[in-house]
Design brief:
Shape: globular
Number of strands: 10
Strand content: 25-35%
InterPro entries: MTA_SAH_Nsdase, Nucleoside_phosphorylase_d, Nucleoside_phosphorylase_sf
Helix content: 25-40%
CATH superfamily: Nucleoside phosphorylase domain
Number of domains: 1
Pathway: Amino-acid biosynthesis; L-methionine biosynthesis via salvage pathway; S-methyl-5-thio-alpha-D-ribose 1-phosphate from S-methyl-5'-thioadenosine (hydrolase route): step 1/2
CATH architecture: 3-Layer(aba) Sandwich
Number of helices: 7
Strand order of the largest sheet: 5-9-8-6-10
Distance between the termini: 13 Å
Enzyme class: hydrolase
Structural class: alpha/beta
Bound molecules: adenine
Pfam families: PNP_UDP_1
EC number: 3.2.2.9
Length: about 250
């Protein structure tokens, strides 16, 4: 798909996770801001691409409502979600980037009426991200990691950040104990990372046939240290990762 036509929706949960996107839109010219359902939607152009940028806030309900507004009110042709996540698979470290090729709600369980994880009546548990969008995001992430290699190596030492692609799982819980992250690993061995919005957006986008993609930087490893690691990462690096990835992604699409 080309993103040169129509509008792109860009979402994050928290302000740091949107990086400098709204500032970049303001620098590029006029930005119109609309408030709907207590959320601000900024309509303008970022790095040459017409887009609507907004903060969903935290959780699946917030994410689904915001994605719906992007689709129905603003008519976006695709949605990209950016932000941080907890690493689940053991080789997914703080500072790594994960692109969610598949998304799934790890806390959805209407069993025994429906299979665990399945969205009742939709008959699906896994939602695929759009391949072309995910590929373009992966290219942006690879360029970001290469360009920032020296700074990232200074910060992360012998384990310079890597890009992973695969399954991201979402649920209305901040996962922050060894017991819980181990339970996730056991239930969903494919899960690379956990967050609280991606699968909800993927479901809404599937239902409305709108392409979507999710990119997450790993802020913590969803264990007992997660709350501290999450806050430190979010404030120190969350914005730099999102800004760096989005800038390269949008500039390549312009
Ligand atoms: N987002 C970032 N870290 C997370 C975690 N550990 N659990 C859920 N969402 C997250």
């Amino acid at each position: 798909m080309t993103l040169g036509v129509g509008l792109l929706g860009i979402m994050a949960a928290l302000p740091q996770e949107l990086g400098d996107l709204v500032d970049a839109m303001r620098l590029a010219g006029n930005v119109r801001t609309e408030t709907i359902g207590r959320r601000e939607y900024h309509v303008g152009t970022a790095h040459g691409v017409p887009c609507v940028a907004t903060l969903a806030r935290v959780g699946k309900v917030a994410a689904a409502a915001t994605a719906s507004a992007l689709i129905h009110v603003f008519g976006v042709e695709a949605i990209v979600f950016t932000g941080v996540a907890g690493g689940v698979r053991k080789d997914v470290r703080v500072g790594d980037i994960v692109i969610g090729d598949t998304l799934m709600q790890h806390d959805l369980d209407a069993s025994p009426l429906f299979p665990r994880f399945e969205v009742p009546l939709l008959g699906m548990a896994r939602f695929a991200a759009n391949a072309a969008l995910s590929e373009a995001l992966a290219n942006a992430c690879t360029a970001f990691l290469a360009d920032e290699h020296a700074a990232l190596e200074a910060r992360f030492g012998v384990h310079p950040p890597r890009l992973h692609r695969g399954m991201i799982v979402s649920g209305d819980r901040f996962v922050s104990s060894h017991a819980e992250v181990n339970a996730l690993r056991a239930a969903l061995p494919e899960a690379l990372a956990v967050e609280m919005e991606g699968a909800a957006i993927a479901q809404i986008c599937y239902e409305h046939e709108v392409p979507c993609a999710v990119v997450r930087t790993v802020s913590d490893t969803a264990d007992a240290e997660a709350p501290e690691s999450f806050l430190e990462f979010l404030h120190a690096l969350g914005g730099a990762y999102s800004s760096g990835i989005l800038r390269r992604f949008l500039a390549a699409k312009a």
